[in-house]
Amino acid sequence: MIEWAKVQAALTRAGYPCGAADGDPRVKTFTALFAFAAGRQPDETIAALGRAGAARLRDDAICGTPQRLAEFLAQCCNETGGFVRFEEDLRYSAGGMLKTWPTHFTPSQAIAAVGRPIEIASRAYGGRNGNAPYPSRDGFTYRGRGMLQLTGKSNYAIYGELLGLPLLAQPDLAADPADSLLIAREFWRKGRVNDAIDKGDFVNARQITNGGAIGLTAVAAIRTRLLQVLA
């Protein structure tokens, strides 16, 4: 379990004050924790995450152990560039497109798509995850958004229904920091990521959330830092 009074004291010593070390993780505590993970003082986005965290995470299984919460925060922090970017960055070079999606672009198509995010996402994600094939714009409409990069029309439908959010009609809601935290929490549950963490299998935890091992080292560094205050 997490000893919240010790966490609060450690955050304050680290320069992220969260009020009295009373063992009750309210908004100030979660705001300081998100800020500590990102390595910067709270801004509007981190404040929104702090409010959502206090409301939705404090009694969740994610907060059942320091390791679970550290991994959740580390993965979300890594995917958003420190809780800054909540929408997929589609600034790819032609070479980057061919490396990332070798079956979705020919060399000439990749060259022509440089600087055209709608074209890139529509080709890259068209015809899968519930998206209609290119030239439909579904791939762009339902591009990666949020703390764990929700992607694809079918996933927007699934998590919209789970959370009562109109994600199909208003996909930009998935990029709202507070809503994206709820989506990430449900994804975490659905993927049983806590089970992998409890086994100490952080490679599998990354595989579930990312689909591969990209970012594994960066996530590990953030996790280690977080455990300095959580454990």
Secondary structure blueprint with pairings:
Layout: H1 4-13, H2 27-38, H3 44-56, H4 66-79, H5 94-100, H6 107-113, H7 117-125, H8 138-141, H9 153-163, H10 177-190, H11 193-198, H12 202-210, H13 216-230
Characteristic key phrases:
single chain; 231 residues; mainly alpha; 0% strand
Q: Can you tell me about this structure?
A:
- This protein is mostly helical.
- Helix content is 57%, strand content 0%.
- α5 packs across α6 and α9 crosses α10.
- 42% of the residues are buried.
Give the gist of this structure.
57% of the residues lie in helices and 0% in strands. With 231 residues, the chain is mainly alpha-helical. It is elongated and about 60 Å long.
Gap between N and C termini: 9 Å
Which structural class is indicated by helix and strand composition? mainly alpha
**Residue share in β-strands:** under 5%
| Overall geometry | elongated
Q: Please state the CA-atom Rg, rounded to the nearest Å.
A: 19 Å
Number of E-state strands: 0
As a percent range, the share of helical residues equals 55-70%
pLDDT averaged over residues:
96
Per DSSP, the total helix count is 13
Order of helices and strands: HHHHHHHHHHHHH
- What low-confidence regions span 5 or more consecutive residues with pLDDT below 50? none
Question: What kind of sheet is the major sheet?
Answer: none
